[in-house]
TrEMBL record:
Origin organism lineage: Bacteria, Pseudomonadati, Bacteroidota, Flavobacteriia, Flavobacteriales
Naturally occurring in which organism (per UniProt): Aureibaculum flavum
Gene behind the chain: lpdA
Top EC group: oxidoreductase
UniProt domain FAD/NAD(P)-binding: residue ranges: 4-329
Catalytic activity: N(6)-[(R)-dihydrolipoyl]-L-lysyl-[protein] + NAD(+) = N(6)-[(R)-lipoyl]-L-lysyl-[protein] + NADH + H(+)
Cofactor: FAD
Name recorded for this polypeptide: Dihydrolipoyl dehydrogenase
Sorted UniProt keywords: Disulfide bond, FAD, Flavoprotein, NAD, Oxidoreductase, Redox-active center
Length: 468
């Protein structure tokens, strides 16, 4: 029987990063992956493939809607070749997953392909695809098995007409009418992909606004822009039934007044969140406890109820984000090595990769009001930037929330071009507990989208924005 200092179950961003850091710290490390390729949901059917399709559809949309403005004339029809887009997406995925394999080999991490399950707190049985079973021993074990798409109890996912994000990444045709249940990140991103390619898109959301966990101003701005792009929204609608036929799906919902309304589309994307995936792990044999939501209980060191077993990423509480899982993977590796790492969960940024993009870190206005915090707000519109005017990306804004007395930045909320990258400036500032004045005093290159951050900081420090 092979023995290891650390064995990781699951090779998504949390798992493979944990494995690399463990190996860097001198631990003999193994990683166990149920599927044939490494990378988990993020690389195979999540973050990476969805961004590949978002980029392809963005290029197509620019060609038909914006090229002429830039003096680019194309003769003949411009056509979207979905098969080529899907093929390119798969090539991106394959390149990334093979890159993870390279990193495992480089760091001398042993890879096991098969379904890992606990025999006890230090032994894992690995059921391989060919029917063979192998058992390994590990002093420490990290559970990083991620999550799967959630659904509603009355919805049957046939994966043909009623689909999840996984199937939406590999459709054989552009939908005529895609009905999206859920106005969160995944539904909006994939909805925009197919809207750009020519589909009618309707988003049904139970809450009173889309991206309901983010600052309300971001919800309002993104919905306004997406409506301009032709996406239809039905907020405060409660879906009550989904019935799939051979070529059509009928969705029934109660509207804001409780009256039943009906939607018909050729595809229905169910995007109502994700749930922890621990099926088949046999947690009880290792003495690992989970809560009523299926999340594995952990302490501040991310230890489970079995002290040598840790859990990270989507299987524990908190935002289901790849970069959160990565931070936790490093945290656990360094904890096992006897170091004293830390994670500030308040400073894990959130991003929506629509166009315009949406990004945020820290507290929302709603959270500050609820907590009774005395704060001030500064905001700057992207349309006032020379860079935005030059590129034609004039939608959105940057908003900075700061403590009314100390001026410390408490939250930053952005909507606009490249804000998925810009949010890192806010994270750095808040990690060092910067004030709005600190950001306002820093030189930002001109012309850039980042100038909106400086201008919002100037606005927060005393309505001193220079270009509005």
């Amino acid at each position: 029987m092979s023995t290891y200092d650390v064995a990781i179950i699951g090779s998504g961003p949390g798992g493979y990063v944990a494995a690399i850091r463990c190996a860097q710290l001198g631990m003999k490390t193994a990683i166990i992956e149920k599927y044939d390729t490494l990378g988990g949901t993020c690389l195979n059917v999540g973050c990476i493939p969805s961004k590949a399709l978002l980029d392809s559809s963005h290029h197509y949309h620019d060609a038909i809607a914006h090229f002429e403005d830039h003096g680019i004339e194309i003769s003949g029809d411009i056509k979207a070749n979905l098969k080529k887009m899907i093929d390119r997406k798969q090539n991106v995925v394959d390149t990334n997953t093979s890159g993870i394999k390279y990193l495992m080999d480089k760091n001398k991490i042993t890879i096991y392909h098969g379904m890992g399950s606990f025999v006890d707190a230090t032994h894992i049985s690995i059921a391989q695809a060919d029917g063979k079973t192998e058992e390994i021993e590990a002093k420490n074990i990290i559970i990083a098995t991620g999550s799967k798409p959630s659904t509603l109890p009355f919805i049957k996912l046939d994966k043909k007409r009623v689909i999840t994000s996984t199937e939406a990444l590999s459709l054989k045709e552009i939908p005529k009418h895609l009905v999206v249940i859920g106005g969160g990140v995944i539904g909006l991103e994939l909805g925009q992909v197919y809207k750009r390619l020519g589909a009618e898109v309707s988003v049904i959301e139970y809450m009173d606004r889309i991206i309901p966990t983010m600052d309300a101003s971001l919800s309002k701005e993104l919905q306004k822009v997406l409506k301009k792009q032709g996406v239809k929204f039905y907020t405060k609608h409660k879906v009550t039934a989904v019935k799939a036929g051979a070529k059509e799906v009928t969705i029934t919902a109660d509207d804001k007044k409780g009256n039943p309304v009906e939607f018909k589309g050729d595809y229905c994307l169910v995007s109502v969140g994700r749930k922890p995936y621990t099926d088949g792990l046999n947690l009880d044999k290792a003495g690992v406890k989970a809560n009523e939501k299926g999340q594995i209980d952990v302490n501040d060191h991310l230890q489970t109820s079995a002290s040598n077993i840790y859990a990270i990423g989507d299987v524990i509480k908190g935002a289901m984000l790849a970069h959160k899982a990565e931070e936790e993977g490093v945290f656990v590796a360094e904890t096992i090595a006897g170091q004293k790492p830390h994670i500030d969960y308040n400073l894990i940024p959130g991003v929506v990769y629509t166009w315009p993009e949406v990004a945020a870190v820290g507290k929302t206005e709603e959270q500050l009001k609820e907590a009774g915090v005395d704060y001030k707000s500064g905001q700057f519109a992207m349309r006032a930037l020379g860079r935005s005017r030059a590129s034609g990306d004039i939608d959105g804004f940057v908003k900075i929330l700061a403590d009314a007395k100390t001026d410390e930045v408490l939250g930053v909320h952005m909507c606009g071009a490249r804000v998925a990258d810009l949010i890192a400036e806010a994270v750095v500032a808040m990690e060092f507990r910067a004030s709005a004045e600190d950001i306002a005093r820093m030189s930002h290159a001109h012309p850039t989208y980042a100038e909106a951050v400086k201008e919002a900081a100037l606005d927060a420090t005393g309505k001193r924005a220079l270009h509005s």
